[in-house]
Design a protein that fits this description.
The chain is an alpha/beta fold. The protein has one domain (3-16, 44-193, 229-291): Spore Coat Polysaccharide Biosynthesis Protein SpsA, Chain A (Alpha-Beta Complex), CATH 3.90.550. It contains eight helices and ten strands. The protein has helices at residues 75-83, 110-126, 128-131, 145-155, 175-186, 237-246, 253-259, 279-291, and strands at residues 48-53, 69-70, 73-74, 89-94, 135-140, 162-167, 191-197, 227-229, 233-236, 264-268. The strands form two sheets. Strands 1, 4, 5, 6, 7, 8, 9 and 10 form an eight-stranded mixed sheet that branches. The chain has a two-stranded antiparallel sheet with strand order 2-3. Helix 6 crosses helix 7. The protein is globular, with a radius of gyration of 19 Å. 42% of the residues are buried.
């Protein structure tokens, strides 16, 4: 039996057949731009799976921000809603602070997952219209990012050809951006990430905020060669699995795959694709959503 056709597990979310009627994105939440009306040829098909890393405790933010409201949906909800129409399945790595358990690489216990999985089941119920046939799976996240990646990767079928890595801290990434990184991989790259041109001057400072000398003695690379790295990122599945099997503790996936010999390309990023790490950045994201597409 093909693994993608295996019977659903308790943590899987059953999905109904796609309706003949095209969904109305505005019925889900204001400001949410989904790809439900994208032509069939623009959709990647059955070989694309996404992982959404949402297991953080929110230590920098002061709360688990992935579950906070952003224009009628949580940050996590918006991330799933954007990815699902373009994927066969989405694996979500969730925190399990209520049980005191995390995934240490040994495996998931179904009982441990029930509480955290309940949130994603509610998300799936809300997003059935835009998620279509995409499978929704949950795994226990780990203490470190690499643990969550490893747990999510184990839940992605080996038949997947492209793996998307996303996180709930970038809830405003558009479907266009998802298609762009997928397209770059389908054209032969081992990985692709959205990059924004670096337009500000960088300074090297110490822990007290005092600027260190020496930068002027070593001219920095031209600004055109520097970009700010965003997510979602997409990878050839074989290259991604190989890179993580060699160096599973890396903090940034495109750098990891590049270090293992993969060819990584940048696609144009989006200024509105904020990395939400502070309450002020969440307030800005809410203003962007309220302004509409």
């Amino acid at each position: 039996m093909n693994e993608e056709e295996a019977p659903s597990r308790p943590e899987d979310e059953a999905q109904p057949a796609r309706s003949d009627r095209e969904p109305d994105p505005s019925a889900v939440a204001p400001g949410l731009a989904v790809d439900a009306k994208a032509p069939a040829e623009a959709r990647p098909g059955a070989s694309v799976w996404a992982m959404v890393l949402a297991a953080g405790s929110g230590s920098r933010f002061g709360a688990p921000k992935q579950f906070l409201d952003l224009g009628g949906l949580t940050l996590l909800d918006r991330t799933i809603a954007t990815l699902a129409p373009l994927c066969t399945g989405v694996v979500v790595a969730l925190p399990l602070s209520d049980t005191g358990h995390t995934n240490d690489g040994v495996g998931n216990d179904g009982a441990q997952l029930r509480s955290a999985a309940e949130h994603v089941r509610r998300v799936a119920e809300q997003l059935r219209t835009v998620a279509g046939r995409a499978q929704l799976r949950t795994v226990a996240g780990g203490r470190e990012r690499a643990d969550s990646v490893r747990a999510a990767l184990a839940a992605i079928p080996p038949t997947a050809q492209v793996i998307i890595v996303a996180d709930a801290a970038h809830p405003l990434a558009s479907g266009r951006l998802v298609r762009a990184v997928i397209g770059a991989v389908r054209e032969g790259a081992d990985g692709a990430f959205p990059g924004l041109p670096l337009t500000e001057v960088l300074a090297d400072v110490d822990t007290a905020g005092v600027r260190r000398a020496g930068l002027e003695r070593t001219p920095p690379p031209p600004a055109a060669t520097r970009v700010l790295v965003q997510t979602p990122q997409a990878f050839d599945a074989a290259a991604f699995r190989l890179a993580h099997s060699d160096s599973p503790a890396a903090a940034e996936d495109s750098a990891l795959v590049a270090a293992s010999g993969g060819r990584i390309v940048a696609v144009p990023g989006e200024p509105t694709n904020l990395h939400v790490t502070t309450p002020a950045e969440l307030d800005l994201a809410r203003l962007i959503v309220a302004a509409g597409p």
